[in-house]
Amino acid sequence: MAKPKKLPPPSTPDTEAALAQADTPIVKWGVVAQIAAATVVVWALAIGAIPYAGYWLVGGAAIGTLVLAGFGVYAWRIARRQRRLLSVLRRAGDEEGRKAAIAELEAQGTKDGMAALARAQLILRDDPKQALQALEAIDLAKEPGQVQDEVRANLALLYLMQGRPRDARPVTDQLRLDRQPNAKAKAMYAAVMAEASARTGSADEARRLLETYPPDDPSYGEVAMLLLRAQIYTYHATKNRGLVRKAMRELAARDPNQLAPFVKGPADLQQAVREVLGEAGFQTRAKTKIQRQ
């Protein structure tokens, strides 16, 4: 009889590799050129129509140009903030760099939501409560829509990880999937929204949402584990025991430690965890605790 395997240590994200893959915001000059050309055409048409329509079209062109200029300045400022932030984060590849980055971001306070979010993600490993406080202190009303959603998604995830779905639900209710163009980030939002819904009495709504984001989509990467976690809570609420075990098996195959929250859950979930880990050959004593990252 084979000796039961011990659970591997919790997986931790490769910060250095993740930061190396981060994209520095750049000006898309092709798009700028297209907008500029379209603006010139509009002005030419407006001026050419003066004998027929007076200066009304010229006034409209002027207003439109001012609006575009204002949007351009706003987008440039956001891109500059992102570049400055990424330059700080890329120095956080090792422990010394991480501490220096945290100190630099902390000096910026909570007025810059993106900086506060980055700091919270860096301190999460050592102090989840402090990371949660950093996110709660961000004034979302002063941030762009996508930054608001990013903060809300991370805040709700921390609430869920700490067993506070009632606090997470009003946060996820304000998330906007349509404002997130990145498929991986959108899947993360969906996972958090679905779990919060499933754990607060809206399991059918959660199931419909999860059907749109299959965990086996390779573009989702490690977010697949959040989707599987949400599936477990959702299928448990809808009493689909077979689907609960299926999601648990898939999650255990990726990282068995991710089943830790269910060890202290309802009796049927505890039993399912023990069975799934036992099938995988891991030790499943009743008092065994699975570490989470």
What would you note in describing this structure?
The protein is mainly α. The protein has a domain at 23-89. Helices cover 65% and strands 0% of the residues. The protein has 15 helices and no strands. The protein has helices at residues 15-20, 29-48, 50-53, 56-89, 95-106, 113-123, 128-136, 145-161, 165-172, 183-198, 203-210, 223-237, 241-254, 260-263, 267-279. Helix 5 packs antiparallel against helix 6. The longest helix has 34 residues, at 56-89. The radius of gyration is 24 Å and the shape is elongated. The model is unreliable at 7-27 and 286-293 (pLDDT under 50).
Features:
mainly alpha, disordered C terminus, 293 residues, single chain
Overall pLDDT confidence: 77
Estimated radius of gyration? 24 Å
Helical coverage, percent range: 55-70%
> Main β-sheet: number of strands, strand sense, barrel status?
none
DSSP helical segment count: 15
Given the C-alpha coordinates, what overall shape results?
A: elongated
Q: Which consecutive residue ranges, at least 5 long each, have pLDDT under 50?
A: 7-27, 286-293
Classify the secondary structure makeup into a structural class.
Answer: mainly alpha
C-alpha end-to-end distance: 31 Å
What layout of secondary structure does this protein have?
Blueprint: H1 15-20, H2 29-48, H3 50-53, H4 56-89, H5 95-106, H6 113-123, H7 128-136, H8 145-161, H9 165-172, H10 183-198, H11 203-210, H12 223-237, H13 241-254, H14 260-263, H15 267-279
